[in-house]
Amino acid sequence: WRDSERLWRRAVAVEPDCASCLNNLGRALMRADSRRPARDAEAEVLFRRALTLRPDQPGPYLNLGALLVGLGRHGEAETVFREIARRWPALADGPAGLAAVSRARGDEVAAAALLRQALVLDPGFTGARVELGRLLNNRGVAAARAGRLRESAALLRESVGLLRADPEPLRNLRQVVRALRAAGDETAALRELEALRALDPALAESA
């Protein structure tokens, strides 16, 4: 088969009540390089049919929720992800999906809290860890711009712990150390400099 869409269309044609086939065809239609309104509408129909056929499977719910977030239908997406959290309370994708809804609505505080819940349920959930790290980095930068330097430093330190391979939070923390010094807050500047030195000695030397 030349692509997954052709494969799953054939599978659905052969077995129209195969929930997994419907779900996988919907996922193929959601590919970023082929998104069009008609394809999104078809994917939604497929996901809803799949979850009707197999309400015991979380996959169609998760894909439907992600599709609705992408379409900006946040209220409907929230309903789907709350249903996931109700049916599968141990599944980290429920709060992670609700975090995506909160972030899309501009509520980063709620999104961070939900991502923390997801990581409690599944500490190895890489997507939630990276998303939380990036969110905290952005909040740290915003706090620094607003002059809340100590709050910024705390957010950035946590971000560094989550995004160990990403140098951006470290560079932002260095900028906060410099800002703390400029503001005359030597106690906080020294504390954050020591934290930075433990994470990246070379970067700390240039702070």
Architecture overview:
The chain is built from twelve helices and no strands. With 207 residues, it is an all-alpha fold. α4 (58-70) runs antiparallel to α5 and α6 (93-104) runs antiparallel to α7 (108-121). The protein is elongated, with a radius of gyration of 22 Å.
Estimate the global geometry from the Cα principal axes.
elongated
Tell me the total number of β-strands.
0
- List the secondary-structure elements in sequence, H or E: HHHHHHHHHHHH
Low-confidence stretches: none
Structure in a nutshell:
The protein has helices at residues 4-14, 19-29, 37-53, 58-70, 74-87, 93-104, 108-121, 126-145, 149-162, 168-182, 186-199, 201-205. With 207 residues, it is mostly helical. The protein starts with a helix and ends with a helix.
List the helices and strands and how they pair.
Blueprint: H1 4-14, H2 19-29, H3 37-53, H4 58-70, H5 74-87, H6 93-104, H7 108-121, H8 126-145, H9 149-162, H10 168-182, H11 186-199, H12 201-205
Record keyword descriptors for this entry.
207 residues, mainly alpha, 12 helices, 77% helix, elongated
